[in-house]
Amino acid sequence: MPVFREHERLSGLDDTEYADLKDFALANQTDQQGKYRPVLTLRNGRLHTGNYVGVIETRRGTVFEILPKVDFVDDEVRTRRVFLEMLRTYRGLRAAQFNETSIAALRHFNMLDVFVRLFLINLALLTQRGLARHYNSVEDNLPRLRGRIRFREHIRRNVANRARFYVAFDEFTADRPVNRLIHSAIHKLRPITTAVP
Question: What pLDDT does residue 197 have?
Answer without folding.
Answer: 46
